[in-house]
Amino acid sequence: MIQTYCQRTKIEDHLFTIVIPSWNNLGYLQLCIESIRKNSQYKHQIVVHLNEAKDGSLEWVKLQSDIDYTFSEKNIGICYSLNAARTIAKTNYFFYLNDDMYLCPKWDSILKQEIELIGHDYFFLSGTLIEPSTNNPCAIQYDFGTSLSNFNEAELLEKFDSFEKADWSGSTWPPNIVPIKLWDLVGGYSIEYSPGLYSDPDFSMKLWKAGVRYLKGVSQSRVYHFGSTTLKRVRVNNGYRQFINKWGMTSSVLTKWMLHSGKEFNGPLKDFNLSGIMKWKQKIKKILQG
């Protein structure tokens, strides 16, 4: 399935392992890597998983001495890609980033400061997305470009930190960071969701089951997101059905009632139990899914 595992960089004082799954998306991948190099304040291990790489991305990555990589001739999806990249991760923190994302300045120093303030390893943090169009309560809406051809990098760098937004609750989707020992404890991303739809809330649920209650979106660690360029090309799995059959509830129960996603962060989350009525409603939904 996976033909190549290549860990060639010298990991000395590197802070995070940045993992980027990529599927024939060379232009966006190059911009993503450029943003890491230009806008990071610390050294990080960069690991790219290349699916198919029919666009020249494998050849390009091989020429980049600061990038480690894994490679599969077929598109194996997000779950296998992340788990493959984990095998060559050499730092204490796993930072998951999509290849159509651009990291804004000081993204890493802000996360480092947050981690130091938490003082323990039972946390899951997200950076805050800026998107050209969004209904996501965790994101900031502003159009700095919808594609590489109209991306206004200069305006983004001028304005990215001017938008008011409080830290928010409910870390789930990338960009996110978790201690690698916590990633390993819950078994990484669940491959039954391949190619990956609903694998993100499933990972948050696994962390919840492991007792993690510090799931926070860090407002000032900001990332521009062009918007699911890969998802538009892939045949997705029935993640809704898989999630409710696995956990006995919909992912919306997790995000709304347990994680309070998008609400202002007020400290570690409290334990949550379904009420009798909610249990009945979820049972009916599960039956309807078959």
SSE topology:
Elements: E1 4-6, E2 17-23, H1 26-39, E3 45-51, H2 57-62, E4 67-72, H3 77-86, E5 93-96, E6 101-103, H4 107-118, E7 123-131, E8 140-141, H5 153-159, E9 168-169, E10 176-179, H6 180-186, H7 199-209, E11 214-225, H8 239-247, H9 251-258, H10 276-289
Parallel strand pairs: 2-3, 2-5, 3-4, 7-8, 7-11
Antiparallel strand pairs: 1-4, 5-10, 6-11, 7-10, 9-11
Could you explain how this protein is built, in words?
With 290 residues, the chain is an alpha/beta fold. It has a single domain, classed as Alpha-Beta Complex (Spore Coat Polysaccharide Biosynthesis Protein SpsA, Chain A), CATH 3.90.550. The chain is built from ten helices and eleven strands. Strands 1, 2, 3, 4, 5, 6, 7, 8, 9, 10 and 11 form an eleven-stranded mixed sheet that branches. Helix 2 links the parallel strand 3 and strand 4. It is globular, with a radius of gyration of 19 Å.
CATH topology grouping:
Spore Coat Polysaccharide Biosynthesis Protein SpsA, Chain A
What is the chain-wise order of helices and strands? EEHEHEHEEHEEHEEHHEHHH
Mean pLDDT: 94
The span between the termini is 31 Å
Which of globular, elongated, flat, extended, rod-shaped describes the shape?
globular
Number of helices: 10
* CATH classification class: Alpha Beta
